[in-house]
Design a protein that fits this description.
Elements: E1 3-10, H1 13-25, E2 33-37, E3 45-49, H2 52-58, E4 67-71, E5 86-92, H3 97-100, E6 106-113, H4 117-120, H5 123-128, E7 134-141, H6 142-148, H7 155-158, E8 165-167, E9 173-175, E10 184-187, E11 190-193, E12 197-200, H8 210-213, E13 219-222, E14 225-229, H9 241-261, H10 266-276
Antiparallel strand pairs: 1-6, 1-7, 2-3, 2-4, 4-5, 5-6, 7-12, 8-9, 10-11, 12-14, 13-14
Length: 280
């Protein structure tokens, strides 16, 4: 079983360096390699031998990367990812003024490991989940989430299953996951899912204010944050689909409104990225 933790945090120049240091201090494994992604117009660097000094230098330059992923061992698409422990820091920059006035630019921290107790028991983690700049923190079973979110249609495999099939907006056949309560949905830089444990900070107010989040059956207030625990992280999520469904029904109205208010014009977004990076 793979446990994952995602933290979405409001962006600032200082916060990026602080979050990088926090991540490096709480990797949960010995770092050996890292990948660097700059932008859509610059070639990424993959499987670079880990050197903390060189990594820190990348984030002190004006043309800092948009994401870095640190691994304990090298792997490729044919490797068993379950054997790889990793940490990722990503920066989400927005160009739409309307979106900047709601969620705004953000920093995403992600951990993937067989055990993350070292993180959850750390003082730094507890400080972050009570920070006023927190948007959300999700803790979940990563294997289950990926299976529940798979929409890829395989004609040979589907002959053996009873999955409901639909056509997407491009006319392609795919698996209908709308009633997969362990799935995730991503809207702009915001992910929606029904995780084992979730924390919602003040940065989540533009989507659903914390007063409303407290009305959920399994919610409880913390300092600057609302905690929702759906099931123990060491249990099989399949046993808790009814509770996950209950949460999806609760958050769906806020999710739908956020999605309708923040539809992404991909052409406009790509043009803005190219202009910002001086390719136009």
């Amino acid at each position: 079983m793979r446990i994952a933790c995602d933290i979405l945090y409001k962006y600032s120049e200082v916060a990026v360096l602080n979050m990088l240091r926090m991540g490096l201090f709480n990797l949960g494994f010995t770092p050996n390699y890292y990948n660097v992604f700059f932008n859509q117009f610059k070639k990424p660097k993959n499987n670079v031998v880990f050197n903390e000094t060189n990594l820190n230098k990348l984030f002190t330059k004006s043309n800092r990367p948009r994401s870095i992923t640190i691994f304990d061992k090298m792997y490729d698409d044919n490797s068993l990812e379950d054997n790889v422990k990793w940490f990722r820091l990503s920066i989400n920059f927005e160009s739409d003024v309307e979106y900047l006035e709601t969620i705004g630019n953000s920093i995403l921290l992600e951990w993937s490991n067989s055990n993350l107790e070292f993180l959850f028991q750390s003082t730094i983690f507890n400080n972050i989940i009570s920070d006023k700049n927190l948007i959300y923190c999700y803790i979940y079973n990563q294997n289950d989430l990926m299976k529940q979110s798979n929409t890829i249609y395989n004609e040979f495999e589907e002959n053996k299953t009873k999955n409901k099939l639909i056509k997407n907006e491009y006319g392609d056949i795919e698996i209908d996951i709308s009633e997969n309560w362990g799935r995730y949905e991503r809207i702009r830089s915001v992910t929606f899912l029904a995780g084992s444990k979730m924390y919602f900070g003040q940065g989540f107010n533009p989507i659903s204010n914390l007063e409303k989040m407290l009305k959920f059956k399994f919610a409880k207030p913390l300092v600057n944050t609302v905690e929702i625990e759906l099931y123990p992280i060491d249990k099989d999520p399949v046993q808790y689909r009814d509770i996950q469904k209950l949460y999806w029904e609760f958050i769906n109205e806020s999710k739908t409104k956020f999605e309708n208010d923040n539809k992404l014009d991909f052409t406009k977004w790509l043009f803005s990225k190219a202009k910002k990076n001086k390719y136009l």
